[in-house]
Give the backbone structure.
Amino acid sequence: MGIDAGFDMVPRLSKGVVDRHNWDRFINFIKEHYKDDAQIEIKPNYIIFKAGEHPILPFEGHKFLRFSSKVSGPTAAATRVESYIDTVTRIAKVHFGSRVQYWNEGFDHFGNYDWNEVHESIRSYEQVRHAVVISPFLLLDKLGIPIFEIKDILGKGKGLVARFNISKGTRILVEKPLLTVRSMPPNELEPVLAARLKALSKASQRQFLSLRNNFPGKYPFSGIVKTNALPCGPGSPVGGVYPTACLINHSCIPNSHHSWNSNVEHETIHAVRPIEAGEEITISYDRGDPYIVRQAFLNEAFGFDCNCSGCSLPPSELQASNARRILIQGLDDTIGDPFRMMVSPKEVLGDCHSLLQVLEEEYGGCATASSARLYYDAFQVSITHGDQARASVFAERAYKARVVCEGEDSPETQRVKSLALKPSEHSSFGLCSTKWKTTREMVPKSLNTAQFEKWLFGEQS
Ligand SMILES: C[S@@+](CC[C@H](N)C(=O)[O-])C[C@H]1O[C@@H](n2cnc3c(N)ncnc32)[C@H](O)[C@@H]1O
């Protein structure tokens, strides 16, 4: 006989993401607290306290009902287990509040659960679970914790700053527009906006009106749109205004990419390179022009002078950057020429390879949207000449780049993904010629990386 004491979790925890997150934090706290205590052993599925009746905390919170032991007696072991129970109960209360119900039979205070139930729950701790790997960013998202904070940025007004280290390809933000509007002169736009605003909720009206206006005066609503709207797709005449996405400032070498998902009509922001905690999240407002051209554009269109890292390079480096940007635009134009694609496909593939290298030099692996476009161009060159082998590799690369900058659910990502699997389903399959005719199975398997790249870009057959 003896006196039992401990605590019960009432009601028991669910398998839901919030309870799981809280339980993991609690377990990590316990591990840290007892890390130097030789009586506490971490097993694959639980933590065991080797005192008294060896109470246990499982790693799966939804299985847990009770932490208890017999605590009676003047021995050192009884004192030790009593102290474990007291401390673990206090820590559990901090994490779960009134759900943690302490009981002690010595005071005629009994637990909530039947002992059969409790023993059954303890037996289930041993059953190995197949861990569901959940991205920490997805978890934060589900918990409604943004991975950025809104801060004042010197010389730029408000901006978004990473609260955690963010890995490449992470979806930083997804947001529906407050409103979308077609581009038109401010005197025509103003009444359209007034009517749209009137139809919005008071909260949305306040969000719209809280946005920055670099063009105050006769047309205040149009000024807000001009300062903030993001195009709904590349080159779209329709722009969307968002409460949070519109707080993201510009950089000529941005660490993030914004994209409009036309299927679900929302804007997404993805990291195109790793972003460190404390770093500002930036997107590009311009087309990647050389310094003078983009400064003029940013000043005229948005009313600011850019001092980003790309604009603050020493003169010789800025000159080299300008040369690269001119080359990028030139190659972009020639690659898009349908006549060249028809008569000189090999040269076009060569240009695609050169463009890839210049993009890498200029943007250091952050030009994912441009690479996605260029891989798609190379796909088109290959498929119009019947080359399914190269086309499938280019589509696969376009797909991977799209996943980084737009996510798996973007319509363009899905389109290039299906083309990677079935390149022949493209409407231009064999349209120019079938002189490069191959099947998907003919992608070479035994080449090293350098040889493979040479084969891919048509530098060796
Ligand atoms: C869409 S808003 C971005 C959020 C804005 N900073 C705010 O406080 O609401 C665009 C405006 O932010 C400012 N901005 C954006 N990027 C900037 C930069 N790189 N340098 C200086 N100002 C910038 C400019 O005033 C620009 O017109």
